[in-house]
Structures are given as C-alpha cells and as structure tokens.
C-alpha cells in the first residue's frame, strides 16, 4: 500500500521539527536514509543557494552514500540544524568509517536552506542544532511507509510562494517496472505558482483536466493578493528545495542526472525559477533495492521522467496543504482561502 509520499521509497523516513509562535515561523525537515545509507547526488540551479556538503555529492568525489538530507528554514543560519543531525547519526554509529573503532565515523549530511528570516516577526528566530536533532529523531521514530505531514510544517513552516503561503508537499509514482519514484518539496518561491489570468495553479495546468475558478472568485482573490502585497516587504531571497528519490539501483552519476531533470518539475509549477535570488536545489537519493528494467543506458529515462512529474505534483500539494498566516512578520493567504478547497482540482 502506498501513501503518495517520499516514504513510498522503502527505507526512507521523514521527520519535521516545526517552530512557530513567539516570533518564530520556521523549522527543519530531515529525510533519513535506511541503515547503510543511500546513493546521493545534487543539482543546484538557483543563483543564491545556501547549502552544506554538496561538493561531497559530486560523482568524482569519494563519498558514495549519505545517511540523511536536511532541508531547513533560517537561511544560512539554519544550516546549523545539520550539526544536530550529525550528532545523532554519530551516536548511532552511522557515517563514513574513518578509524579502527566502529564509532569512528563522520556522517556526511548534505543540507540546504530556504529564506524565511523574520516571517514570524523575530529575525533571530531560526533553526539550530536542537531543531535538526528533533527532526531526525521524529524521522527515526516514524513507521516504515508512514504518511508525511504536508503544508506549514518543518522547513515549510515559514515558506512563501509568490504572495501565497507555501509549504511542504510530497508525491510518488510506481512505474510499470515496479520501480518507485517519489519527491518531497519545500515551496518557498520568488516566482509565482499561480496563473494570474485564470487563478489555476501552474502545476495543475500542466497536469490537465483542471476546473477553472468562477470569475467573481478569481477577481476577489486578485484584490486580496494586491492588498497583501502592499503590506509585505518583497522577499529578498527565496528557494524551492526538493528531494527526489527512487528504489532503483543507480550510480552517483545517474542520481545526479535524476536531480537535474527533476528541476523540470519545478519549472512547470513555478514561474520564473532559478533566478539570482533563488537557491533552487534538488537532492537525489537512490536506495538501490531494485534493478533498472533493461540493460542499456536508456532504461533510466522512465525514472527521470517520473522524477520531474512527482516534483510538480508535490509542489501543487504543498500549496494546497498550506494554511494562511497573518502575523507580525507578514500576511500570506493560502490558496484554499482565496479559491476554496475544490477550485482547480482535476
């Protein structure tokens, strides 16, 4: 049984640590790999990324597998959350073995951040090592194949999509070969997820069979968005982060290709993307429990196409799951508030 989430890739677990109230509107999300780790890669296309340990994922470099990926709020300050994840992994004896003792390990924990500073009202309220530890402990405590909370949780707590509230979304697909491909996305985009002419989410336009909102509803939504835009300072930095994963047996080079083509899924659902003040980053994970169907290099194509598709669906789900925010740091209505829960569904 699948739950249409990243956790449909057997062995992967997801944990959130959400920090809201008292000036906070931020958090951290951790994707925890199975024991023994997962092959990992990354593709960074935004002009203003905030990342940690991404060079280790280059196929030319020595690290083959990682035990966790951290997605966090707090801009570059929030990357400190990875330290808490590293500490927890070290306690479990998980990481790259560097000495004669089984406990002599160095966990490689790639991380990327979104800009949400001040969105809860306090610029200094940001994730730290304790936040990262709470997120990885939540992941470790979850059941195999558990549903993943979406919307304003974890790294998506303070996320914004244009003038709408953003958040966390996830989706999965099972190919005819039996291979599973899935994604988890934090939508915090400088670009818009919303077609201004119709009120439909770009990602749903790509999927087809949309139901267009009534004109009166769309006009009311446009007035509301114009009103909040005049109140909110324009966000100086934004980022869409994703983890795309599969149970296929991929090399690091193949995983890097999957991370790259997954950016197409962002481009379908967010316009524009990959700007100089974006930090758009996609991590790829491959647990390697299923062989690719076929012996030639083109056997990877179905996985690549599915990776982009599930990223688009995850972005739509993130925006639909998000709730409105009206606080000292700004006002961001949700898509549901503006258009209702049924508008634009397939």
* Backbone CA Rg: 19 Å
Low-confidence runs of at least 5 consecutive residues: none
Number of strands: 17
What order do the helices and strands follow?
A: EEEEEEHEEEHEEEEHHEHEHEEH
Distance between the termini: 23 Å
User: Structural class from helices and strands?
Assistant: alpha+beta
Write down the overall mean pLDDT: 94
Percent strand equals 25-35%
User: What is the strand arrangement across the widest sheet?
Assistant: 5-3-15-14-13-12
Q: Percent helix among the residues?
A: 25-40%
Principal-axes shape call: globular
For the report, how would you describe the main beta sheet? 6 strands, mixed
Structural commentary:
There is one protein chain. The longest helix is centred in the last third of the chain and has 21 residues, at 301-321. Helices cover 26% and strands 25% of the residues. The two termini are 23 Å apart. 59% of the residues are buried. The protein has a six-stranded mixed β-sheet. It is α+β, with helices and mostly antiparallel strands.
Q: What topology does this entry show?
A:
Blueprint (H helix, E strand, L loop, with lengths): L12 E9 L2 E9 L5 E7 L6 E2 L12 E2 L1 E5 L8 H11 L4 E2 L7 E2 L4 E3 L15 H13 L18 E2 L2 E2 L1 E8 L5 E9 L13 H6 L7 H17 L7 E10 L3 H18 L11 E10 L10 H21 L3 E3 L2 E3 L2 H5 L7
Parallel strand pairs: 6-9, 14-15
Antiparallel strand pairs: 1-2, 2-6, 3-5, 3-15, 4-9, 7-8, 10-11, 12-13, 13-14, 16-17
Helix pairs in contact: 1-2, 5-6
